[in-house]
Design goal:
By secondary structure, this protein is an alpha/beta fold. It has one domain (about 35-240): Rossmann fold, CATH 3.40.50. It contains 7 helices and 11 strands. The protein is globular.
Length: about 250
């Protein structure tokens, strides 16, 4: 990855431009708009160097720029990107052709984050029984949907694999107040649940890293069997801290 401007990078002829939401542009063949600041792009590059992920699932593709970037950085065996958008964008389709990545970069369009049966079927179809190395949730940013996806995909991670939840802090930022989500429970609740789970089930949950926008949890070595629910991965005393009146 070569930075060609303070907010723009290039990889093998494809450009990636970092833009805030208010300055976004429509991605086009060979030129993607990333709704991420430069330091997050650099953090993804560092995460890929550390983890060397071969099997990646991304939930929430937007126009495909982040999936293209991850594919360029990781050169994975397979990256499955899932989104509610009914079909991939022209920019994404061009990238797949340009990189000859039909087998290694797969888009599942028209799939809602809540439809975990379909998501798990897609994971089974594209990865079989092989564990995942990296899962990224950049979809709804809402508590119920984020937790539902986590419950489905976290058990599929290999020990030492990473699960990234993006933009957990929207309720605590100035920009977050402009989303019209005043009635929504902040995604912070899921972060609190992860903190408690790391303490209560340290063999299933490894290191937890929290930054301003990201929560990254490492999969622990102990197998997860049967039904799994993040909200239940803590003792009553811990749960009372999240819901004092409950």
């Amino acid at each position: 990855m070569r930075w060609i401007a303070d907010d723009g990078a290039e990889i093998d002829g494809v450009e990636y431009w970092c833009r805030p939401v208010g300055e976004r542009f429509t991605s086009e063949p060979g030129r993607f708009c990333l709704l991420k600041p430069r330091h997050e792009v650099e953090r993804y590059a560092a995460l890929v160097r550390e983890l060397q992920p071969a099997r990646i699932v991304e939930v929430g593709s937007y126009d495909g720029g982040s999936a293209a970037l991850l594919h360029d950085l990781a050169r994975p065996e397979r990256l499955l990107t899932i989104d509610r958008r009914t079909e991939p964008t022209d920019a994404f389709a061009d990238f797949v052709r340009r990189r000859r990545a039909t087998a290694s970069l797969v888009s599942a369009a028209g799939v809602d984050q809540a439809d975990t049966d379909t998501i798990l079927a897609l994971v089974e179809a594209h990865f079989g029984a092989a564990p995942l190395d990296l899962v990224i949730d950049d979809a709804s940013h809402l508590v119920g949907l984020t937790r539902t996806t986590f419950n489905a995909l976290y058990p599929r991670l290999r020990p030492g694999g990473k699960y990234v939840i993006e933009d957990w802090s929207w309720a605590h930022t100035v920009l977050g107040n402009s989303f019209g989500w005043d009635a929504e429970v902040p995604l912070t609740v899921v972060v609190f649940e992860l903190v408690l789970a790391c303490a209560h089930r340290p063999r299933q949950f490894g290191e937890l890293t929290i930054t301003k926008n990201w929560a990254i949890v490492e999969r622990g070595p102990e197998p997860i069997e049967g039904a799994f629910d993040l909200a239940a991965c803590s003792a009553p005393r811990g749960r009372s801290l999240i819901n004092p009146g409950g």
